[in-house]
Design brief:
Porin; 16-stranded antiparallel β-barrel; globular; two-stranded parallel ribbon; about 400 residues
Length: about 400
């Protein structure tokens, strides 16, 4: 928690010492809503090749049209808009990643309702393939922040212009933890609990919010939180007077209280970003005992990344060539309560490679990943190649 204290001090110092700046780091939905067009169409795609490396075994590589996404925005009036994101994963799976109505209540105050991205971390909201280095997204944003994390909810978003702050605050349905059997696990954290707006179980509302500071020009800081309980089918149809059945249902629910901090910094050809997340899980002992699962009582991790555009000094070019390196450390068993801690869930990863941006909307990527966990002295490796596009 000391890291959050230091970062909080830095942000408050910046708020008081620097003049107002323009917020130039917008995600796809924000960019589409800022346009004057009545109908806006966009999209992005990722095509990947992953080749595991082993000195002991022959392993097949995997070629995959990982994601193909179409985005649509419609402006009913200057104040009322609708944005949706429809994704095809692995060619045959179809998901809706966003679908929300936005209405301007006042200057810099918007009411948003529908299927909304949880404002936690960087990649969950900024996940277009040309906005991040590496063929694959950081695994912190898979196992700790279960990207792409979206739920149905309602809330407010906007800016405090004189402080260079962007804010979001929503009430949403929670992650699912039980539907006849345990949904959550120590290995995957809360990832399997994403309900994605599909016949969502709703038993108690959750809160999520984020504040971003953009007053330093090429630096943006973000602080986010998620507070609430998971949802369980066990409550459906229970008699309010049946205390035993209600106690059993309570054992299928855990509380998740997560905080996050992140930054993005670009100066000249230098690029850097980082993220830190910590989640406290309550009632995990009762949950594990009732369901037979192994959910930790705390999860967390961080990553730091740096890169440099070697084409930065070239005039009259929109192309970028960025060698980069990312270090990740995360643990879905950071604390475990009454169950035994599994050292294999403490993971360390290094990703190093090249991103060649042909322009702002098209990129070729190549990298090598090194994986290690606390249960073994041996590390594994993987080579990745990818194509990424984004337009709006």
């Amino acid at each position: 928690m000391r890291c959050f204290t230091i970062l909080s001090f830095c942000v408050m110092f910046c708020v008081n010492c620097f003049a107002q700046r323009q917020d130039t780091m917008l995600n796809t939905a924000q960019t589409m809503m800022a346009k004057s067009n009545k109908l806006t169409i966009g999209g992005y795609a990722e095509i990947d090749y992953n080749q595991p490396i082993s000195s002991d075994f022959i392993k097949n590589g995997k070629l995959d049209v990982h994601r193909l996404v179409m985005l649509f925005g419609y402006k009913f009036s200057k104040k009322t808009q609708f944005v949706t994101e429809i994704e095809y994963e692995h060619v045959k799976e179809v998901f809706v990643e966003q679908a929300f109505l936005s209405h301007q209540l006042a200057k810099n105050v918007n009411l948003n309702a529908g299927l909304i991205l949880i404002p936690m971390g960087i990649v969950n909201e900024y996940h277009e393939p040309t906005t991040f280095n590496g063929v694959e997204r950081p695994n912190l944003d898979k196992y700790i922040v279960p990207s792409t994390w979206r739920e149905i909810g309602v809330g407010l978003s906007g800016r405090v212009q004189n402080l260079s702050l962007r804010y979001q605050a929503y009430l949403v349905n929670g992650l699912a933890s039980y539907n006849g059997s345990a949904i959550l696990s120590g290995q995957n954290g809360f990832r399997s609990g994403r309900q994605k707006g599909a016949k969502t179980i709703a038993s108690s509302p959750n809160f999520t919010g984020k504040v971003e500071y953009y007053g330093l020009g090429n630096v943006k800081f973000g602080f986010s939180t998620y507070l609430g309980k998971t949802q369980s089918s066990r409550f459906d149809g229970l008699e309010r007077s049946n205390e035993f059945a209600i106690a059993q249902a309570d054992s299928t629910v855990v509380g998740l209280y997560m905080v996050g901090a992140d930054y993005r910094w670009n100066r000249g050809g230098f690029q850097s970003r980082g993220q830190l997340n910590y989640g406290k899980v309550t009632n995990s002992n009762a949950y594990n005992k009732f369901t037979g699962s192994d959910v930790g009582s705390a999860i967390g991790g961080f990553y730091l990344e740096a890169g440099y555009d070697v084409f930065h000094h070239r005039k009259n070019t929109k192309s970028q060539l960025v060698p980069f390196c990312r270090f990740e450390k995360y643990n879905t068993h950071q604390a475990t309560g009454e169950i035994e801690q599994n050292a294999a869930f403490a993971r360390t990863e290094i990703t190093s490679g090249l991103t060649w941006k042909l322009n702002s909307g098209a990129a070729l990527k190549a990298d090598y990943q090194w994986f290690k966990n606390g249960a073994s002295d041996d590390a594994t490796g993987q080579i990745n190649f990818g194509v990424g596009i984004w337009f709006n």
